[in-house]
Amino acid sequence: MSDETRSDMYAELAALGPYEVHPGHALITMVEPHPGHEYAYNRWYEDDHYYAGAMAMPWMFAGRRWVATRELQELRYPEKSAVAQPVGAGCYLSTYWVTDGRYDDHMKWTVGINKRLNRDGRVYQDRTHVFTAFQDHEATVYRDGAAGPRDHHALDHPYRGLVLQVIDAEGAGQRSGLLEWLRSRHLPKRLGGSPAAMVTVFRPTPLPGDRMTYVKQVEGVDTRLTLLWFLQEDPRECWTEHFTGLDAAVAESGLGRVELVAPFIPTVPGTDLYVEQLR
After folding, report:
1. Could you tell me the CA-to-CA distances from 213 to 64, 107, 114, 128, 253 in Å, in that order?
2. What is the CATH number of the domain that holds 90?
3. Residue 41 lies in a domain
4. What residues contact 137, with CB distance under 8 A and at least 6 apart?
């Protein structure tokens, strides 16, 4: 068994390179199971792929799945989205943290294992990747300063909801200005009195050329920012007061445009809860 798994190499790999506890990178993937395949997709992802295709991999140290029921899908905006067409597409969202500085190591493993899973018939085909990208961490803004969970706790802490926000800068040269405005002005102001304890900000990176063919190349790698708002309340209970108008605020800044604001609630692992509420 040692020769087959090259176990001796693991000690060498663990002794080298960065290993700080920090979400330096993320995999954020929003997927739409094809109509009639919702239950089968959910069981495949939870029973197999979440582990064999994600959490069992080196340097991916936290993960959580989220779901948007029909009621939550109807809260999304803008109606004309560059991310989701129609805007309600993508009822499942999975988020994963990857150790800072380990993106290349993890990517080599994930390409290899996904090719193997596909070859072995362990990849569910009746689904569409609406928004899937590995992303680099740019900032985390906290509502309560040093109090409360840190960003590396975010996928393990029992948050009751998450809002995915995607913003495109007007051009590649404007993204740094957009990021600074978000980090220093907009997000601190918006978080005050908000049910969101923190917002993490990422920028997408291009997928490798040898990725699986069913995952399209990432768009907006030079202009896009992806925000994850971690909520202590169900998004349906605070949507109107706290999460409408995010597109107008960004537009008024003149730094970019919001392409998606989408609320989710956490799945309950090992169950099919919420599947009957997707359509």
Report:
1. 24, 15, 11, 12, 38
2. 3.30.70.100
3. yes
4. 22, 23, 24, 25, 26, 100, 151, 200, 201, 202
How far are the Cα atoms of 14, 98, 206 from residue 101, in angstroms, in the given order?
13, 9, 16
Global confidence as pTM: 0.95
Residue 1 lies in a domain: no
- Please measure the distance between the N-terminal and C-terminal CA atoms of the chain and give it in whole angstroms: 47
Residue ranges making up the domain that contains 142: 19-277
Parallel, antiparallel, or unpaired for β 161-169 and 60-67?
Answer: unpaired
Tell whether the model's pLDDT for residue 1 goes beyond 50: no
Gap between the Cα atoms of 46 and 214, Å rounded: 20
Rounded to whole angstroms, the Cα distance separating 146 from 176 reads: 25
Q: How confident is the model at residue 211 (pLDDT cuts 50, 70, 90)?
A: low
Query: Which ranges of the chain would DSSP assign to H, the alpha helix?
Result: 2-5, 7-14, 38-44, 50, 70-73, 103-119, 175-181, 187-191, 235-242, 246-253
Number of domains in the chain: 1
Residue 5 covered by a domain: no
Percent of the chain with pLDDT over 70: 96
Among 212, 195, 214, 215, which residue's Cα sits nearest to residue 204?
215
Q: Supply 225's token pair.
A: 């920012």
167 within some domain: yes
